[in-house]
């Protein structure tokens, strides 16, 4: 990559990250207001039932929940500017700590789901274009429609019933076994065994989307003059497919993957609950149900930043992959 | 290409290992017996004396003790208090503490811990203890290291049933008495108790690990080396985990799974009153007595006749208990009486009552009654059945399913409903729990209070009398009278007395599901 292009990539990335500021402020206000507007009181879950109104009022004042919404929002935004995400009501610990504790699990699951989604999707795309509109292609198109339409919570329960209960090949939930697995390698294998089903459940619908996009763009690429030229030079079918068509066909796939970063996070909420995976998705669900506003906001902010970062990374990758595109 | 692939694999393995390291410290040693318990929610913090929250107590009740425990009939038995004397006609209780008990950090347990726990923690932060015990209590004193005296303003009968680990966990003064804010105290994350198990670790959202307390004051207990609470938010996953052997105990069995579990020789399924603290739960419909038409007794009676309690018990609650007959659950054995007025399922009688009330069927077959039914989304099955049963007598039920917190807010705080729903879980004495639902002093924007807005001064004074008499027969008669009056007034529709199923792997025995400390006596079954 030339110096000039590298500099323009850097400018592009900086501009995108700077745009995050105003965008994030808007989202913070919207999310804070929405969560606060939901009826319900976190104090009941914190203190339990059977108390007197005076006691609940005391606790509400202690947590600052008796203040009007604009005051609470101003305080929250002020603390946020100082880098303070606040204190979780449920965990009675700083939100940043609680979120960071759970972030690795979600990153591992999200990454594994991406590997499953993109890997399987590209594989399906490559298989489908071997003989366009043939039997295999038809079967793959049918399969991708089914996979895309399958709800993740249903699939998750189905996978659990089959592989963890009936066949008992894989563990049922969590990230590690309760019984010790001994060596460090045993530990990695243990996590991988726990990871397989949630990653499959979460990655399947992504594989359907990437599979369809990969098929369409591979078909386009295979019609392009440079493929004809490669074939004329005597390149083998595999070489044409993998070295000439695939790199060009991958660009739309990357775009789709980037745009699905958000849905991987929301899908993770469902998958994590079913598989008891101790990640951010489950934390967000618990925080919302318990009206733990600072915690829900914390997870939400992390989610928002990851989606934006994923999109910036996709844009950069997109431009790095295709030198013909201008960076703006 | 190969180099890139090796980078990716390397990073993945590194990521997996760091996630693994995070959790590795929470894995108990391979040595010893471990019992794995499914936990429905993440506890968040582990100080039992500042909350009655259902996610905290199943864990902390294994780490701490109360002054007394509860036996299977929910009668008080010695725990941190070895024995007690009731003096001055029930105005004074003198507790003689067990000697030689130490906290998990080795510091001796004394009467100062008990006085501190009540005065500084329980009476300030434990909602039920503060609301129930606070008004009656005059003071607590410690004449010596092993004696504690409770003085009351009037004779107070339910005290002994308010002192188990769930209602009043005793916490260490030397840990919590350091002047730090109790609601955010660091020890809330690393609790120190006197109980059968010692806190080891807590991986948020995943598991809490406890280990055997080698200095526990009951010889030979506990019977296992480690307890792992696995946080499994989905009931369905918890049930599968129990069947597959990943979990050894679950305190809730989904209704449709009961028959399958019973047929499984590797599982034991037992029906018992509520979870932690021997709580006795009753499922209840709440009419809004401040709004027509449910402010009319004849309409309420018609509705109760229209509801088929037997069908609901069987099809909605999968017979995990029995149809309710009145305000006190049949599980409160000594206080329960079948009320004289019985509302049998009788749609003809319901229709006649509605006709007499001037609410006749219109041309389209419905009557001019349309009720909003505000309920938590997990009660949709009940809502469907109720809608059908009320439709049969011409009443329209508009379903409003909400998430739990929002439903509680609508019914108890905003009071914006015609018909609401609650599962009232009460303590071992009718004074602990039942009273709050009917007492006119408890109508306010408080969750799980007198949501119907029922006022009857006779009932109020009978509840006062019930708690101020020590003579059990006299108390029984007082509660029988209360049940009679409430059955006449019908301020609520009592649906179901719960006694849910608990299930465990047959490889373990000794669970005590009626008690907060349900793992104290668990041990592996000898081969």
Task: Describe this protein's structure.
The complex is a heterodimer of chains A (about 325) and B (about 525). Chain A has a domain at about 95-320: MetI-like fold (Orthogonal Bundle). Chain A is built from 13 helices and no strands. Chain A has helices spanning about 5-35, 40-45, 55-60, 70-80, 95-130, 135-150, 150-165, 185-225, 225-230, 235-260, 260-275, 280-290, 295-320. The longest helix of chain A has about 40 residues, at about 185-225. The radius of gyration of chain A is 24 Å and the shape is globular. The two termini of chain A are about 15 Å apart. The mean pLDDT of chain A is about 85. Chain B is of the alpha+beta class and about 525 residues long. Helix content of chain B is about 30%, strand content about 20%. Chain B has helices at about 1-25, 55-60, 110-125, 125-130, 175, 235-245, 260-265, 295-305, 310-315, 345-355, 380-390, 405-415, 435-440, 455-465, 470-490, and strands at about 35-40, 70, 75-80, 80-85, 90-95, 135-145, 145-150, 195-205, 205-210, 225-230, 250, 265-270, 280-285, 320-325, 370-375, 395-400, 420-425, 495-500, 500-505, 510, 525. In chain B, α14 runs antiparallel to α15. The longest helix of chain B has 23 residues, at about 1-25. The radius of gyration of chain B is 25 Å and the shape is globular. Mean pLDDT of chain B is about 85; it is low at about 1-5 and about 10-30. Chains A and B meet through α2, α3, α5, α7 and α8 of A and α1, α4, β10, α6 and α12 of B.
């Amino acid at each position: 990559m030339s110096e000039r292009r590298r500099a323009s990539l850097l400018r592009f990335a900086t501009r995108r990250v700077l745009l995050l500021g105003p965008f994030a402020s808007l989202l913070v206000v919207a999310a804070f207001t929405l969560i606060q507007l939901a009826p319900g009181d976190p104090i009941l879950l914190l203190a339990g039932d059977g108390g007197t109104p005076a006691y609940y009022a005391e606790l509400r004042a202690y947590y600052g929940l008796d203040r009007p919404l604009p005051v609470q929002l101003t305080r929250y935004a002020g603390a946020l500017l100082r880098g303070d995400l606040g204190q979780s009501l449920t965990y009675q610990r700083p939100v940043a700590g609680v979120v960071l504790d759970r972030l690795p699990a979600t990153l591992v699951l999200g990454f594994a789901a991406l590997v499953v989604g993109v890997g399987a999707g590209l594989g399906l795309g490559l298989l489908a274009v071997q003989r366009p509109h043939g039997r295999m292609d038809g079967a793959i198109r049918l399969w991708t429609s089914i996979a895309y339409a399958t709800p993740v919570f249903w699939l998750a329960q189905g996978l659990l019933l089959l592989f963890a209960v009936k066949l008992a090949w894989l563990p049922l939930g969590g990230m590690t076994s309760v019984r010790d697995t001994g060596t460090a390698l045993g530990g990695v294998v243990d996590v991988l065994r726990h990871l397989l089903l949630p990653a499959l459940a979460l990655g399947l619908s992504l594989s359907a989307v990437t599979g369809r996009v990969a098929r369409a763009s591979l078909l386009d690429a295979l019609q392009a003059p440079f493929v004809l030229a490669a074939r004329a030079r005597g390149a083998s079918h595999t070489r044409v497919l993998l070295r000439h068509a695939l790199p060009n066909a991958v660009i739309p796939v990357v775009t789709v993957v980037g745009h699905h970063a958000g849905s991987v996070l929301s899908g993770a909420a469902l998958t994590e609950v079913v598989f008891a995976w101790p990640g951010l998705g489950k934390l967000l669900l618990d925080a919302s149900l318990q009206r733990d506003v600072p915690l829900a906001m914390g997870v939400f902010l992390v989610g928002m930043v990851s989606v934006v970062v994923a999109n910036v990374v996709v844009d950069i990758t997109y431009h790095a992959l295709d030198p013909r595109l201008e960076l703006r | 290409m190969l180099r890139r692939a090796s980078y990716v694999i390397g990073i993945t393995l590194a990521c997996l290992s760091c996630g693994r390291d995070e959790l590795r410290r929470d894995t108990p040693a391979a040595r010893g017996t471990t019992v794995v318990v499914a936990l429905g929610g993440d506890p968040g913090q582990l100080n039992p004396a500042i909350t009655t929250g259902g996610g905290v107590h199943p864990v902390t009740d294994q780490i701490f003790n109360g002054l007394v425990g509860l036996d299977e009939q929910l009668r008080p038995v010695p725990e941190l208090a070895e024995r007690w004397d009731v003096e001055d006609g029930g105005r004074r209780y003198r507790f003689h503490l067990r000697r030689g008990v130490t906290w998990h950090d080795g510091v001796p347990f004394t009467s100062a811990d008990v006085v501190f726990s009540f005065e500084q923690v329980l009476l300030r932060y434990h909602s039920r203890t503060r609301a129930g015990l606070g008004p009656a209590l005059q003071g607590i004193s410690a004449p010596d290291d092993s004696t504690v005296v409770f003085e009351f303003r009037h004779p107070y009968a339910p005290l002994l049933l308010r002192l188990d680990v769930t209602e009043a966990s005793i916490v260490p003064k030397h840990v919590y008495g350091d002047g730090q804010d109790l609601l955010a105290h660091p020890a809330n994350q690393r609790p120190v108790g006197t109980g059968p198990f010692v806190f080891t670790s807590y991986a948020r959202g995943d598991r809490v690990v406890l280990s055997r307390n080698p200095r526990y004051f009951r010889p030979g207990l506990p019977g296992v080396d480690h307890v792992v609470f696995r946080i499994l938010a989905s009931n369905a996953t918890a049930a599968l985990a129990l069947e597959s052997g990943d979990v050894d105990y679950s305190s809730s069995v989904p209704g449709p799974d009961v028959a399958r579990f019973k047929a499984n020789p590797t599982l034991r399924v037992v029906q018992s009153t509520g979870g932690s603290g021997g709580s006795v739960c009753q499922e209840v419909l709440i009419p809004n007595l401040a709004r027509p038409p449910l402010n009319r007794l004849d309409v309420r009676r018609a509705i109760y006749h229209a509801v088929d309690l037997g069908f609901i018990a069987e099809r909605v609650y999968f017979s995990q208990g029995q149809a309710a007959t009145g305000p006190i659950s049949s599980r409160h054995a000594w206080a329960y009486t079948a009320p004289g007025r019985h509302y049998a399922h009788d749609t003809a009688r319901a229709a006649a009552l509605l006709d007499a009330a001037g609410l006749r069927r219109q041309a389209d077959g419905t009557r001019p009654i349309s009720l909003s039914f505000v309920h938590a989304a997990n009660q949709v099955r009940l809502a469907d059945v109720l809608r059908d049963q009320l439709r049969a007598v011409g009443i329209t039920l508009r379903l409003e399913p909400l998430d739990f917190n929002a439903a509680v807010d609508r019914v108890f705080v905003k009071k914006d409903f015609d018909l609401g729903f609650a599962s009232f879980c009460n303590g071992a004495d009718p004074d602990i729990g039942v009273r709050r639902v009917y007492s006119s002093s408890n109508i306010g924007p408080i969750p799980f209070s007198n949501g119907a807005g029922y006022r009857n001064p006779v009932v109020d004074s009978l509840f006062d009398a019930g708690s101020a008499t020590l003579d059990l027969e006299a108390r029984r008669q007082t509660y029988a009278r209360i049940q009679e009056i409430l059955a006449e007034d019908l301020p609520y529709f009592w649906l179901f007395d719960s006694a849910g199923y608990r299930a465990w792997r047959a490889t373990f025995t000794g669970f005590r599901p009626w008690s907060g400390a349900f793992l104290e006596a668990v041990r592996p079954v000898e081969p």
